[in-house]
Write a structure and sequence with these properties.
22% of the residues lie in helices and 31% in strands. The chain is of the alpha+beta class. About 10% of the residues have low confidence.
Length: 414
């Protein structure tokens, strides 16, 4: 027991030394990268409703916490201060309501700023600094809108947008990697998001990009004299079919399998996926939006109604005009003016795995029987009575007039 205990002690000591070394190496990241003497802004672009993270790539070693600043325009005087002193404390140098939406959707973790479900109005300059006002690093964030997004279904022979070449600039699309397949074991779909980028020799040198003279279309590096480039070219999404095998599942024990077979012999075995199912009742003629639990905008989400696949090629918003059931670019399922035929169980897939079900039932307003004393009944009876009296009066007046006319035409000797 003595040598074993000594060996375990030595092993624990080695693990502690390695952990301390790893932490020290992680802390040395800020020593390797010196903060720029002249502040420049790194350009990054995202699609609306996505969650993005901005790391503070440099800071002095003695700084233990950072403050993030948001400024829409560099020449503007409004600066929103984002801080996490003792939790998450929100400060604003001018008007809080100007950045009220952003202030509810940010978090600072390990010196990095995380913005959840970014919107177009969140585009601007983000600066990492200290509470004294010193600035260490800056970003030029471009959040491009998803309302005018262009969709290309490659299986149908559709193609992505061609490049636009002008006199002073050219526009093109930069695509991200293909997402994972949204279903497994059956035909699924995967998508590829593309954002608008511009190439020009007239970009501001204060903004740093991955390629020379290339930046996103909504960047502040684009000269003011240029037109609004996102009106000339919109972001786009390419969709194609895919097939992915499901990961092997653990087989049940022999006794459990025997009991399952006995139950199957005595009754009908329902073919329902074993996922958590939520029950919901929705009044008819109302609108319903269903979100996949745990899914974020960057995840690949698929929807099924019972055994029917709701593929994006048929149900993505904008495929047809006046769609009542559609999937938006944030992976939400919309049902407008709910009908009786919408009843059923809706299953959602997340990154190739079915994760949840949503059983929908449609309710209708109960028809109340009206009594003779109800105001509606009294109004109807009064209207019917008045109408009947008017018709009866017209009938008698017509016959009375006819009798008078015959009496007047009758000869006097008869």
């Amino acid at each position: 027991m003595g040598p074993s205990l000594l060996g375990a002690t030595i092993l624990l000591c080695l693990v502690s030394v390695l952990q301390a070394y790893a932490i020290e190496k992680k802390g040395d990241v800020f020593k390797k990268m010196a903060c720029p003497a002249f502040l420049t802004f790194e350009n990054v672009a995202y699609l609306a409703d996505m969650t993005f993270e901005l790391p503070c790539k440099c800071k002095p070693e003695e700084v233990s916490s950072v403050v993030w600043y948001f400024q829409k325009n560099l020449r503007g005087r409004t600066i929103t201060v984002l801080s996490d002193f003792d939790g998450t404390v929100v400060l604003d140098s001018s008007h809080v309501r100007a950045g009220s939406d952003l202030l509810k959707r940010f978090s600072i973790r390990m010196f990095s700023l995380i913005v959840f479900r970014a919107q177009v109005r969140d585009s601007g300059h983000y600066l990492c600094g200290s509470k004294e006002g010193h600035v260490f690093y800056g970003y030029d964030v471009d959040v491009q809108p998803s309302g005018r997004i262009t969709v290309a279904f490659l299986d149908s022979g559709q193609h992505v947008q061609d490049d636009y070449v002008g006199e002073q600039f050219s526009l093109f699309t930069t695509f991200w990697d293909w997402s994972s397949c949204d279903r497994c074991g059956v035909r699924g779909e995967q998508q590829r998001v593309g954002l608008c980028f511009v190439q020009s020799a007239q970009l501001s040198p204060r903004y740093r990009t991955s390629l020379p003279n290339v930046t996103s279309c909504g960047s502040r590096a684009v000269p003011v004299s240029f037109p609004h480039l996102l009106h000339l070219r919109s972001p786009e999404v390419a969709v194609r079919s895919c097939l992915m095998l499901c990961p092997p599942k653990e087989a049940p024990e022999e006794g459990v399998q025997s009991i399952s077979n006995i139950v199957y012999k005595f009754g009908e075995k329902p073919d329902v996926p074993r996922v958590p199912i939520q029950y919901h009742s929705q009044p008819s003629r109302t609108n319903l939006v269903i979100a996949c639990p745990g899914a974020r905008p960057e995840h690949t989400v698929g929807w099924d109604k019972d055994s029917v696949r709701l593929y994006r090629s048929e149900y993505l918003v904008g495929v047809e005009k006046g769609m009542r059931v559609f999937i938006d670019h944030g992976n939400h399922l919309h049902i407008l003016r709910v009908r009786r035929s919408d009843r059923g169980t809706y299953f959602c897939w997340r990154d190739g795995e079915m994760v949840a079900g949503f059983r929908l039932s449609v309710t209708f307003p109960a028809q109340r029987r009206r009594g003779p004393g109800d105001p509606e009944s009294i109004f109807v009876m009064r209207a019917v009575g008045i109408g009947f009296a008017v018709i009866t009066g017209i009938f008698f007046l017509a016959h009375l007039g006819r009798c008078c006319w015959w009496a007047l035409r009758k000869p006097a000797g008869l």
